[in-house]
């Protein structure tokens, strides 16, 4: 079993035609001065051992200056298993969860629901079997339908066991992947 988190997962998805929010990975505080900043920004802890960043208080929103970024960086690097920090422009839009899972009974199923922290509160995620009509019923939004169709398409030859995108944010006519994780068989 192999796990792709953060940058690896996003690069895997970018190569397959998904829209990914621009992300910069930094390992030390000095590198923050080299970043081309787009404020407000988000800083997130990065680690192969941290699956749910919000559960370890590993996400800092609303960064508006280099000094704030340095302070947030220092705090995030104190988190157990932190390997570095991801920097993204903070975007606003409806947040969704999209995913792919290989099941014993149905083969690949695609998942869709409210994303961000709402997924934990609402616990409403719908599933459809890839290759069967009904995947487009999960959302009336064309961009989200395209993402779900691409997920079903990559299931055919990728060796993916499970893929999670959360959040998937609709912004300016794009469905942008902000965070993702992939588990391979």
Structure, described:
With 185 residues, the chain is of the alpha+beta class. The protein is built from 4 helices and 12 strands; from the N terminus they run E-H-E-E-E-E-H-E-E-E-H-E-H-E-E-E. The strands form 2 sheets. Strands 1, 2, 7, 8, 9, 10, 11 and 12 form an 8-stranded mixed beta sheet that branches. Strands 3-6-4-5 form a 4-stranded antiparallel beta sheet, with helices on one face. Helices cover 21% and strands 38% of the residues. The termini are close together. The protein has 2 domains: 22-89, ATP-grasp fold, A domain (Dna Ligase, domain 1, 2-Layer Sandwich); 93-184, 2-Layer Sandwich (D-amino Acid Aminotransferase, Chain A, domain 1). It has helices spanning 6-14, 66-76, 118-122, 142-154; strands at 2-5, 19-20, 23-26, 41-46, 59-63, 84-89, 95-103, 107-114, 125-129, 160-171, 174-177, 180-184. The mean pLDDT is 91. A hairpin with a 3-residue loop joins strand 7 and strand 8.
Mean pLDDT: 91
Q: How many DSSP E strands? A: 12
Instruction: List the total number of helices.
Output: 4
Order of helices and strands: EHEEEEHEEEHEHEEE
Overall CATH architecture of the largest domain: 2-Layer Sandwich
Please indicate the count of domains.
2
Main sheet summary: 8 strands, mixed
C-alpha Rg (nearest Å): 17 Å
Oligomer: single chain
Within CATH, the superfamily of the largest domain carries the name: ATP-grasp fold, B domain
Strand content: 35-45%
The first-to-last residue Cα distance is 5 Å
Q: Low-confidence segments, ≥5 residues, pLDDT <50?
A: none
CATH class of the largest domain: Alpha Beta
Helix content range of the residues, please?
A: 10-25%
Given the helix and strand composition, which structural class is it? alpha+beta
Global outline = globular
What name does the CATH topology of the largest domain carry?
D-amino Acid Aminotransferase, Chain A, domain 1
């Amino acid at each position: 079993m192999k796990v792709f988190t953060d940058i690896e997962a996003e690069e895997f998805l970018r190569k397959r035609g998904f829209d990914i929010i621009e992300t910069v990975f930094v390992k030390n505080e000095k590198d923050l001065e080299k970043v081309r900043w787009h404020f407000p920004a988000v800083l997130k802890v990065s680690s192969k051992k941290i699956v749910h960043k919000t559960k370890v208080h590993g996400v800092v929103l609303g960064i508006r200056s280099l000094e704030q970024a340095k302070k947030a960086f220092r705090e995030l690097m104190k988190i157990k298993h932190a390997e570095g920090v991801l920097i993204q422009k903070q975007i606003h839009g409806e947040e969704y969860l999209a995913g792919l899972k290989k099941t014993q009974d149905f083969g690949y199923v695609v998942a869709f629901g409210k994303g961000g922290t709402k997924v934990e509160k609402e616990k409403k995620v719908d599933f459809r079997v890839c290759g069967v009509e009904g995947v487009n019923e999960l959302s009336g939004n064309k961009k989200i339908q395209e993402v779900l169709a691409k997920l079903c398409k990559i299931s055919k030859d990728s060796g993916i066991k499970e893929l999670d995108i959360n959040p998937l944010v609709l912004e300016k006519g794009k469905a942008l992947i902000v965070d993702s994780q992939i588990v391979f068989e």
